[in-house]
Amino acid sequence: MSAEDADFRCMLESASIRLAPDPDRVRAAHDRMMRVAQGPRRRRGRRTVVVAGLVVVGVSAVGLAGTQAGRKLLRSVFTPVKRMYVMGWQGPIEPVVTTRPGQSATPADAKSIPAQSPDANSTGQYVDAVFGVIATEGEEPPGTEEADSAMQGMHEVDEIARAGGGRLIGLTEAPGMFGYVVEYTLGNGEVRPVGTNFLYPKQRVNMRSDEIIQLRRAGAGQTISQEKHRIGLGRFVIRLSLANGQTVDLRTQYPPMTAKALQGIFAETRALKASHRFTVAEAFAGPPAPNATNREVHGILRYRLANGRTVGIMERVPPALISPDGKWVVMPESQARVEIQKP
Amino acid sequence: MPTTATSCQIGGESSDAETAQGAALRLLSGAFDDHYARVFHYLSHRFFDRELAEELTAETFCRAAGAADRFEGDVGQMQVWLLRLATNVANTHHRRVRWRRRLLDAFVRTGPAATGPDSPSGPGNTADQDHVRAVLQGLPSRHQAVLVLRFYSQMSFDDIARVLGCRPDAARARLSRAVKEMRKRLGADDASRSPSV
Known about the structure:
The complex is a heterodimer of chains A (about 350) and B (about 200).
Chain A: H1 3-14, H2 23-37, H3 40-66, H4 68-78, E1 83-90, E2 130-138, H5 144-162, E3 167-174, E4 177-185, E5 191-196, H6 201-206, H7 209-217, E6 222-227, E7 235-241, E8 247-252, H8 259-274, E9 279-285, E10 297-304, E11 310-316, E12 328-330, E13 337-341
Parallel strand pairs in A: 3-8, 9-13
Antiparallel strand pairs in A: 1-2, 3-4, 4-5, 6-7, 7-8, 9-10, 10-11, 12-13
Helix pairs in contact in A: 3-4
Chain B: E1 7-9, H1 17-47, H2 50-66, E2 72-74, H3 78-107, H4 127-138, H5 141-152, H6 157-164, H7 168-193
Antiparallel strand pairs in B: 1-2
Helix pairs in contact in B: 1-2, 1-3, 1-5, 2-3, 3-6, 5-7, 6-7
């Protein structure tokens, strides 16, 4: 050790202090240490749990943020819940009327059964129409303001419709009736498509609906596309060419055929149904009818026609084929059973 | 309480957990009795503050109790392990109060931070002693530690290296740098004080 180092040591040592620890504080420190020592495993366990939790959270966060599936999950979790709310608007005065071409609608037609209805039980009646439906999407159901606005819009649509306005943008056919999708442009510029099975007289003229029906009943039209479907003879899109050069695409379950041919199919199915010569593709119980002991059962009944084609019709299942417990449709010849689905 | 210098592991796995814990408690209690004064002496010279040294000594032994399962070695190494814990406790405290001391230094040149009733500052302490303590406390904690361990705790470089977690050569080099730094500061302070003397 050099002299310089010795000086330095002396200087430091001169600054040394002699402190005796306070016995009370020593005892307190001892007790404190022993308290800690008696719970070391719990402390270790707690620390392990915390570290493990952080690891899990970190890995999960990386997994969620670093993968497309994770980001999609996050978006789905943190996206505010939106529900579809549907507001129906009852048709103003006129009930749904099914008319044949050349006939004029009368109030008596309102409760008439659609002329082409294939249902031999003839249970369906169309008394009133839901003229329009507004679907909104949001976190809350539409409030009074939205409802008033929607109603106001529908009244405006009704006024336009009465005046014969609107543009036909879609045409569908279910056995017995046509459905129209009409696009209306409101005063505020909003374009609102409305589905309906009722057209005001001026609309029928402007949209040439009578001509459309006439063409359809005459078996006109060109099949643009078709695909298999359990109901009807399939799914068809038929393009009808109107006299003014316009074309209208009709979505239907039957190919171009005359009304007489179509009626012939329905007549044949009614006969087959009466003799229980059909199969049941699907059966489901409807809501309990008032003053009725059993629920009505409907289903998709499939008939093999004389020409070899198979047609499916959704209609009421004959009550005689329903098992006593109401759970099965039992075919009398084959004893084949189809379970009735409850709503 | 005397302890025997047998190889042990305080928190080691044992089929009889209660027996192991009881042995660990006895060992800790013995270590407390054997080494409290040593640790207290070391921390006293890190801060020159009796209250603070007692508090940090207690904190050191609490850490020892909480980390007992990580101690592996014989009882003879207990002192080094405790001083390593004490160094960590002191360095942590030093970092915490550094900003406060710097703030105070910015306004007035002070001596040791604490001047309580039991503080060494007083009639019996000369101005040079206080000055040396102040300069020592103004050093970085790594320099403080090696100086105190070497000159106040009288430890060998091997033991200092174990306490600081480095090789003996590194401990020696660190001490050299600490001495140089302290000389430099003492000289600078002497120069700055000389006009007023």
